[in-house]
Amino acid sequence: MKKKILIPTDFSKNAWNALTYASDLFEHVECVFYVLNAYDAKPYSIGDLMVPEPGSPSYESAKDQAVNGLAKIMDMLDFRETNHKHTYEFIAELNDPLTAMKNFIEQRDIELVVMGTKGASNSRGSLFGSNTIMAMEKLRACPVMGVPLDARVAYVKEIVLPTSYKTYYKRRELTHLVEIARLHDATISVIHVNTTEVLTEKQEKSKTLLEECLEGATYSFHHVHGIDVTAGVRDFTESRDSDMLAIINRKHAFFGSVFTTPMVKELGMFTRVPLLVMHDI
Questions:
Q1: Fewer Cβ close by (within 10 Å): the C or N end of the chain?
Q2: Sorting pLDDT into bands at 50, 70 and 90, what band is 167?
Q3: How far apart, in whole angstroms, are the C-alpha atoms of residue 266 and residue 259?
Q4: Which parts of the chain are coiled coil (predicted)?
Q5: CB within 8 Å of 278: residues ≥ 6 apart
Q6: Smallest Cα–Cα separation from 114: which of 243, 26, 30?
Q7: Under 8 Å CB-to-CB from 104, ≥6 apart: which residues?
Q8: What is each CA distance from 99 to 56, 102, 103, 187, in whole angstroms?
Q9: Cα(188)–Cα(17) distance, rounded to whole angstroms?
Q10: Which ranges in the chain are annotated with CATH 3.40.50.620?
Q11: HEC states along the chain?
Q12: How far apart are the first and last CA of the chain?
């Protein structure tokens, strides 16, 4: 069965890089990549309906832009080396990006969303665009990977997984992480950042369960103390030149809601290291 991957696009360099990154990451896996553009049709004049319909100038203009943009992506893919394991489908939909993605994930049983960390605006001083943050927070039916513009797949040798060991893991939550690690023979480096090295009985049980969930992949455990979580994860990842960061976005847990805390803003490594956001089930 082919792996189903959704690639939202706004026709920016960031979105194109996410598409090529995903293609290279799953080079040896049979995949269907669904390239989705959610477009907005704003009224051109008072005569246009507030909700544009087929045939109205604003609707037809927005649709044409979307179709032409997807056609350019098809042409760009033709210049890449053909991978017979990969097929592409292109979809243009009148909707807001989050709703379009939610609907498509449900309708096509999407397994993974891969998107650029920024959109066409590529605003400075912001590591994540608003659509990416919303996707990582709200699309809980499947994992979301944010790919920075500078990220490239040469080979993935290490994926960092921060943990507090304060919640119990489920194997199906970590399926995609284990798959990527096995595909690239990469090590999953589990890092625990805390003021003390001693784990409670509950944390020890959580660690044991995590080992079971990571079965089939190469993994190692690390502890960093005497430093705050943000600095600990950043320093660990940068010092080892790690290739990916993976988190489970649990509410009321290690990061809380990671995207509403200063952590994302402070982790400069996101300018080059993809972030795989998984969700508790």
A1: N
A2: confident
A3: 11
A4: none
A5: 143, 173, 174, 176, 177, 246, 247, 248, 249
A6: 26
A7: 6, 34, 36, 91, 93, 110
A8: 22, 5, 6, 35
A9: 24
A10: 3-147, 158-278
A11: CCEEEEEECCCCHHHHHHHHHHHHHCCCCCEEEEEEEEECCCCCCCCCCCCCCCCCHHHHHHHHHHHHHHHHHHHHHHCCCCCCCEEEEEEEEECCHHHHHHHHHHHHCCCEEEEECCCCCCCCCCCCCHHHHHHHHHCCCCCEEEECCCCCCCCCCEEEEEECCCCCCCHHHHHHHHHHHHHCCCEEEEEEECCCCCCCHHHHHHHHHHHHHCCCCEEEEEEECCCCHHHHHHHHHHHCCCCEEEEECCCCCCCCCHHHCCHHHHCHHHHCCCEEEECCC
A12: 23
Q: Tens of pLDDT along 67-103?
A: 999 999 999 999 998 899 999 999 999 999 999 999 9
Residues 281 and 172: beta-carbon distance below 8 Å? yes
Q: In whole angstroms, how large is the CA radius of gyration of the chain? A: 20
CA distances from 24 to 20, 21, 80, 177 (A): 6, 5, 11, 16
Six-digit token pair at 248?
């489970």
Cα(264)–Cα(256) distance, integer angstroms: 12
Q: What is the pLDDT of residue 72?
A: 96
Residue whose pair of structure tokens reads 């080079």 in the numeric block: 27
Superfamily of structural domain 3-147: HUPs (3.40.50.620)
Residues in the chain: 281
Q: Kindly state which CATH superfamily the domain 158-278 is placed in.
A: HUPs (3.40.50.620)
